Amino acid sequence: MPMKQRVLRTILATTTLASFSLGSAQFASAEEQTQQTSNWTIEDASQIERTDDNTAPYIEPDFEKIAPELHVWDTWPLRNKDGSIAKVNGNYVIFSLTASADLLPGKRHDVATIRYFYSKNGQDWTLGGKAFETEEAYGARQWAGSAMIEDGELNLFYTATGRKGEENVSYEQRLALAKGDIQANAHDVSFSNFDHSIILEPEGEYYQTEEQSNQGDISYAFRDPWFFEDPKTGKDYILFEGNSAGTPVERSLDPAYIGSESFQNDYELEMEDFAKLFNGSIGIAKATNDEYTEYEALPPLLEANYVNQELERPHIVTKGNQYYLFTNTHEHKFGPGVDGPDGLYGFSSDQLLGEYEPLNDSGLVLANPEDNAYQAYSWMVLPNGKVISFYNFHDLDGRNIADLGATSPEYQMNHFGGTLAPTIKLAIQNDSTKVLNAGKPGKIK
Fold it and tell me: Is residue 425 part of a domain?
C-alpha cells in the first residue's frame, strides 16, 4: 500500500525513562518523544470490508440476561493501575451503564446510571447496585468511563452529562472522577465515601467545545474517559472521545485527510459542506498530579476528519513494543462516500503519542455479521485478548437502525438485548487481527 501522508502536529515531551518489562515485552530507554496527531484517512476507510477474519458469529438469543430488570450496555472492568484486570479479595468487578428495562431502549441514555457487578470466576456476575449515589455525582446522568484500583482506593472515571436540575435534557459532557473506598469479602463487594471531581473540559484549541459544535455540527462528544499508565514512561493519562476543534465554517479539506498522493489524484469529494461535519477524534490528556484530578490536554492521538463523527470508548492494549488503540463507531457515523459497519476499529503504533496506522489496512477489527448488523456494540478489548460488548438491537427483519422509531414499542423492546453479549476472543499479531471464537457472555477471564 502506498505510503500515507498524515497531518502531524508536534509537541516535545521530555521524559526520563528506565528500561523495564511488561510480561515478555522489553522496552528500551528514551529521552524524548514526539507527539504526532495521526489521521484515519479516506483512503484507509475506503478499504473497509467484512471478511471471515473480522466478522463476529451470529448471536443466538438463547442466554440469560445479567440483570433482567435492567437495560445493561457500556461495560468496563475494574483494573489495576498497570491495566491488568484487578481482583479484590477474590472478586472481579465490572461497571455498566444501566436503566430500567421498562424504558424504551432509545430513552435509556437520558437516565443512565452506573451500576456494578462482581464475580468470583470472572464470568458469573452478581448485581451489586449503584456504584455511587447519583445525587452526589456530577451531571444530570453519568455516562461511560473506566475504573482503576490503587492502594485499596477506587478511581472511577465517568462522563458527567448535562447538569443537575436542568429543565430539558442537555448533552453537555465533562470528564469526572469519583474516588471511593472498597469493601470486599467472601460474599460481596461495596463502595463508599466517594469524593467527586471534574477533571477535564474541552478548551476549544485541540477539542471542540459545545459552543463551537452548536454552530452547525450534527454531533458533539467529549466523553468516555479511560485511564492509562504508559508502561514505557510510567506517566499517567486519560484517553477520551472528542471532536476536532473549531466550527464547520473554519474547516477545509486537507489533502492529508484523503490519503496518499496516488489516491488523492483519483479522489473526488462528495457533498463537501456535509462531509466537513464529520470530525471525530480520540483525545488524550496527561495527569499533572498524583490524585488524578488535574490534567493537561494534549493534541489528539487520532482524528477522522471527513471520515467519521464519533470514535467512542477509546482504549489501549499493549503487546510487545506496540500500542494498540481501539475505538467503536456506528455505520451511520461515517461521512459521505465512506462505508463501514457498526464495529470495533483499531490502530497501532510503537509510541503512545503516535504515529498510528490502521490495523488490517482499513482499521476494521470486528464487525457484526451482515444479516444481524446491530447485534452487539461498545466493544472493549482486554489485555488477554478477550473482547466484551453488549447485546444491542438484533434480528430486525431487514430494517435499518434508523427505521426502529417507526416500529411499535413492543417491537423495540423485543429486539433489544440490553445485556452482555458473548465474549469474543481476538488474536493480535503485528498490524493484523483475527476473530477466533465467541464464548460465554461477559466472560473477562
Answer: yes
Residue for cell digits 444481524? Answer: 372
- Residue ranges for the known binding site for substrate are 73, 144, 223-224, 310-312
Question: Strand order in 38-39's β-sheet?
Answer: 38-39, 295-305, 279-287, 236-243, 223-229
181 is catalytic: no
Q: Which three cell numbers stand for residue 97?
A: 451503564
In a domain, residue 178? The reply is yes
Buried-exposed string 181-190: b where 16+ CB fall within 10 A, e elsewhere: ebebeeeebe
Rounded Cα distance between 357 and 222, Å, is 23
Q: Which of 217, 236, 241, 312 is catalytic?
A: 312
Separation between Cα atoms, residue 303 and residue 30, nearest integer Å: 26
Q: Give the span between the Cα atoms of 202 and 277, in whole angstroms.
A: 18
Does residue 250 belong to any structural domain of this protein?
yes
Report how far apart, in Å, the C-alpha atoms of 126 and of each of 121, 190, 358, 421 are. 11, 12, 37, 16
Whichever domain contains 117, its CATH number is 2.115.10.20
Annotated binding site: 73, 144, 223-224, 279, 310-312
Name the catalytic one among 74, 210, 303, 355: 74
State whether residue 107 is helix, strand or coil: helix
- Cell numbers standing for residue 287: 495527569
Q: Is 312 a catalytic residue?
A: yes
Please give the annotated binding residues for Ca(2+), written as ranges: 279
- How many domains does one find in the chain? 1
Query: Rounded to the nearest 5°, which phi and psi values hold at 177?
Result: -135, 135
Q: What band does 33 get if pLDDT is binned at 50, 70 and 90?
A: low
**Residue 6 belongs to some domain of the structure:** no
Which amino acid would we find at residue 50? R
Residue 355 preceded by cis peptide, ω within 30: yes
Per-residue pLDDT tens over the stretch 322-377: 999 999 999 999 999 999 999 999 999 999 998 999 999 999 999 999 999 999 99
Give pLDDT tens digits for 202-240.
Answer: 999 999 999 999 999 999 999 999 999 999 999 999 999
Domain assignment of residue 141, given as a range: 12-441
Task: With residue 304 as reference, give the H or E element that holds it.
Answer: strand 295-305
